[in-house]
Design brief:
Blueprint: H1 5-15, E1 21-26, E2 29-33, H2 34-44, E3 49-53, E4 56-64, H3 68-77, E5 82-86
Parallel strand pairs: 1-5
Antiparallel strand pairs: 1-2, 2-4, 3-4
Length: 96
């Protein structure tokens, strides 16, 4: 199945940070996917949802960007290593 560009970008960055929970900034939220989402949902009391990527359902959990410091502190206090990523975007004018 074809993976979406967003999930390709996420998985590439995730591979560069093994053993960490990857907080992936998407607009006004930090999102976590796959096992990271399950871990964060259990640790932080977040709702676990799904996102469809290339026809596959991917576990997902997130929180508003302005709440980063509180959630980050809780994850670290629970012994998790965490990487924070501001997602790269391509604007239509620069995509030429």
């Amino acid at each position: 199945m074809k993976e979406t560009p967003l999930m390709k970008q996420y998985r590439t960055i995730k591979e560069e940070s093994p053993g960490t929970l990857l907080l992936f900034r998407m607009g006004d939220f930090y999102e976590l996917f796959d096992e990271d989402a399950r871990t964060a949902a259990a640790t932080l009391g977040l709702t676990l949802t799904t996102r469809t990527s290339g026809g596959e359902s991917v576990p997902m959990a997130g929180f508003p960007y302005h709440a980063l410091h509180g959630y980050l502190a809780k994850l670290v206090q629970q012994g998790h290593r965490v990487a924070v990523c501001e997602r790269e975007t391509q604007h239509p004018a620069s995509a030429r």
